[in-house]
Amino acid sequence: MTQIQKFLSELNENELAYFAKFKLHTYMPKTQLEIKKHLSKKGINNLKIEELISTNKIKPVQNGKEQCPRCFTDKLNIQKVELTNFGNHTIIENNIEFYDSLNGEPKYKSQIICNVCGFWVNDPNGQKPNSFVEKTTNYLKAILRGVIKNI
Ligand SMILES: [Zn+2]
C-alpha cells in the first residue's frame, strides 16, 4: 500500500470530499490518478463531493481536541515552529517549549495545517503560500516605491 493509499483509507466519506475539493490538485499527476481511482471506488464523483460538503455530517466535537474550522476533522498536522520574528531563520522542532530568556515569551508556537483539506488553522509565521505571495508582492512594491522616490 502506498503512503497516499494508506492516508486515504483512514478518511471517511466527508473527509474524502473535502480532500478531493481542496487538496487533490496539489498532488503530482500520477498521485492524482491514484486518488481519483480511490474516489471512484468509493462512489465519490463531483456531484457527490458537493453534496457531501454541503451536508457535512462531521460535527464539531466537544472534547477540546483541535479541529479544522473548514472540514471539522481532527486529522491535523501540528508542528512547533520557531517564531521567526525572534531571528532570521526558521527551524522546525517537535515538542520543544523554549522561552525567550529576555522577555519570557514563548519562542515556539504551533503551526497547524489540516491534513484533509489543507486549511491553515494556525500560521504563527505567516508562511501560508498565499500570504507568502502577498508578502513578496508587498516587498517588491516597497522596492519600487523606493526606486521611484529616488529618481
Ligand atoms: Zn480541513
What does this structure look like?
The protein has two domains: 3-54, no CATH class; 76-150, no CATH class. The protein has a four-stranded antiparallel beta sheet, with no helix packed on it. It has helices at residues 3-9, 13-22, 29-41, 46-54, 129-150, and strands at 76-82, 92-93, 108-114, 120-122. The model is unreliable at 86-101 (pLDDT under 50). With 151 residues, it is an alpha+beta fold. The protein binds zinc ion (ZN). The site of zinc ion (ZN) has 9 residues, from loops.
Low-confidence residue ranges: 86-101
The percent range for strand residues is 5-15%
Give the distance, in angstroms, between the N- and C-terminal Cα atoms: 62 Å
One letter per element, helices H and strands E, the order comes to: HHHHEEEEH
Global outline: extended
Give the count of structural domains. 2
Name the assembly state.
single chain
Distinct small molecules bound, one entry per kind: zinc ion
- SS field, number of helical segments: 5
The whole-angstrom Rg is 20 Å
Helix content: 40-55%
